[in-house]
Write the structure tokens for this entry.
Amino acid sequence: MDKIAFTDKQNEFIRTLKQDKLKRINVLEGSVRSGKTWISLIAWAVWVAMRPKDYLYMMCAKSLKTLYRNCLLPLQGLVGENNFKFSLSKKEGVLFGRKIMLEGANDQRSEGKIRGITLGGAYCDELTLFPEDFFAMLLSRLSEPGAKLIATTNPDVPTHWLLKEYLKNENLTDDLFRMFFHIDDNTTLDKGYVESLKKEYTGVYYDRFILGKWVVANGAIYKVFSDSPTAFYTKDIPHFDYINIGLDFGGNGSQHALVCSGITHDMRRLYALKTERIPAADMTPQTLYRRVFDFCIEIKEKYGTVSALYADSTEQTLIAGLRQALRPIEIIVKNALKREINDRIRATTMLMGGGRFFMLSAECQTLIDAFQGAVWDDKVVGKEVRLDDGTSDIDTLDAFEYSFERYIPQLIRSEK
Ligand SMILES: Nc1ncnc2c1ncn2[C@@H]1O[C@H](COP(=O)(O)OP(=O)(O)OP(=O)(O)O)[C@@H](O)[C@H]1O
Ligand SMILES: [Mg+2]
């Protein structure tokens, strides 16, 4: 570890550790990519190495998979395989001769597993993503003398349990050490990369993940779009590797929505190519299939191919009928993946902010309207919810997202 250079902020944290000024609960918070996880892993390793060998320690993240990717592999890279070995199937590791339990906080069995144990220390990555009960249980298990917890997190809503019950809890002041990391504190990052990240995060995501503030989402969701829609309009059609269609079935009062999008060869740009709304009232399944068929034929004629049509999976009967109806034109109908809505929104706004989303405006009026009309629900406290009360066209947004959500990990390189 001796050749490693720390950033100023990281040095400050290591000084705190060396001066024995860490508290029982230590939280490193702030922007993405700011160097929190990296330095917290070093601090954790140094601290554990100084602690009694017969204590039990624990490392956890939202899931075992994210723990592996964000912490276990980097930790092994930092201290070497000789000093840190782990087995994911056994859910344990050995760090400088100390036994480390490994847990995913969202695994239902985890809380039960830690119920009876006594811990000498714990490490938590991305703490806002943990269930509150798991964290409370973990703290109650930190009962060996001098036990400590080191955690990292990005901010969330101001009403989040972590902020309200712990970070801002005046009864805990003596037990709590908090340090803020800004993305600009991470001087190891390439300047161009930081600039592009700052553009990709817009609206509430900018305030949280770049500025590191605990703020609520309010107002327009796609503000980056509605501020200057024409910036996204294009007439140029590049070569696409994937052309997909998303279909959201309308129920009472809403409409069916179709959106076709294309993803470029380099997997970096997303184009909305054609959209359509179909009133659900008085429509039989057959007339719906006909409209979808016509939409698909038009796409096939213009672009030569359709990779797949992704449809809302709650309507299996309609999907079965559609499969039959589209068989003659060889279009495969699949169930939409239905990722978390906020993950889809974040992906869309990141592509918009990063200048990687485009639309054929003349063909996509319903999507233009849907972007401009979408707002956060101000009645829901504690998390972001896209308002879905019939005043805006959520159907078209769903259909748009179904069309590309499968590719979000490839499209968003810094996806969490
Ligand atoms: N001192 C350093 N020397 C070299 N690379 C570093 C250093 N500090 C951080 N990095 C690198 O910078 C990147 C971001 O750091 P890190 O993952 O710790 O950020 P983070 O604050 O945990 O971000 P997020 O909130 O996105 O999880 C990583 O690739 C990490 O390896
Ligand atoms: Mg991190």
The pocket of adenosine-5'-triphosphate (ligand 1) is lined by residues 5-7, 10, 32-38, 152, 154, 181, 186, 188-189 (CB under 6 Å). The domain at 223-411 is CATH 3.30.420.280 (Nucleotidyltransferase; domain 5). The chain has a mean pLDDT of 94.
